[in-house]
Specification:
This protein is α+β, with helices and mostly antiparallel strands and 191 residues long. It is built from 7 helices and 7 strands. Helix content is 42%, strand content 17%.
Amino acid sequence: MRHVQKAPTLLGFKRGQVVEIQGVPSLLANQLPPGVIAETLSAAVGGAMVGGASLDGALQAVAGDVARWMLAVRAGDVRFDTSWTAGPGAIPVPGAPPVLLASAIAEVPPDELQRAWQAVASARVTARQPTDVPVERLGLEPFAMRAQRAASGQAVQALVYELSGGQADKRVQALRALDLLLRLNLVTLGA
């Protein structure tokens, strides 16, 4: 069991899935009855169900909100803590965090993504191995796995070209993969 914390936010994990949320602003804000504010998983799901949502619908919506929150958190603002334990009746949010984050990154417009990565085009990309679970068990897409294996100290722009073969559509896919890997701390950028 571990959790990701960015004070005062907490994401509690059990077996690779989010089972508790505390302090995520606007969690299910568009599905809650007027005047109801929920910053915990149980309060958000309960409030959404009072508002007419099904359990599955509420959990899917929470998954989307968590994914967008994870995208908004800056790299380095999140830490892992293995001392947290889920309470009784913890309900897992559908999708492992890497999958949730990948879905949020997929919503970023390609031109915005390209501008962000152009700013670090000459930075060197180096793979990092997780200490708690093998990369293969994170649920990454094959393209992201390939990008992580290929990151060996070359410049961002050279790695993107290597991964994309110079094809524009594959370039965006390579940038999305690198963005995901950087946010998961599976690659680092250096001078």
